[in-house]
Amino acid sequence: MIQGGAGPLSVRQSRPQDADELSRVHVQSWKETYSGVLSDGFLAGLDRTARHEMWKRVLEGPRVADHWVACDDDRIVGFAGREHPEQQHPGQPILLWGLYVLQSHQGLGVGRKLLEAALGDGPASLWVAAQNEQAIAFYRRFGFQPDGAEEVIAEWENLKTIRMVR
Question: How many domains does the chain contain in total?
Answer without folding.
Answer: 1
